[in-house]
Amino acid sequence: MNRILKFLPALALALAATFAFAFSPKGEATNQYGEDSNQWINVTGVTPGPTTYTCDVAEDEHCLYDAPNGNPLNPGEDKMFVNRGIAPLR
Predict the structure, then answer these.
(1) Residue 9 lies in a domain
(2) Which residues does 79 contact at the CB level (< 8 Å), separation at least 6?
(3) Where are the alpha helices (DSSP H) in the chain?
(4) pLDDT digit string, tens, across residues 5-34
(5) In a domain, 78, yes or no
(6) Domain for residue 68, yes or no?
(7) Cα-based angle 84, 60, 41 (whole degrees, multiple of 5)
(8) Residues of 3-17 as b/e, b for ≥16 C-beta within 10 angstroms?
(9) Is residue 18 assigned to a domain?
(10) 34 forms bridges with which residues in the sheet?
């Protein structure tokens, strides 16, 4: 029984660290991509606007992804990526 009691502080610390990582809020993805006419455009760090891109409301569409052909960043958002002047990836 004494052996188990010796490990309790270490177990509590490991459990607390696990919960801290598991339940901490996620930061914004480092990369953001939009798809326009089957071409992927890197919009990481680009502010949406009339000369860059917008996310217009559309049913069953996604605006930004974490990589080309990747996962949607906001899956329940239902917005469509509209390119307004950014060059696609080559």
Answers:
(1) no
(2) 55, 56, 57, 58, 61, 62, 63
(3) 2-22
(4) 888 888 888 888 888 777 776 665 479 999
(5) yes
(6) yes
(7) 30
(8) eeeeeeeeeeeeeee
(9) no
(10) 41
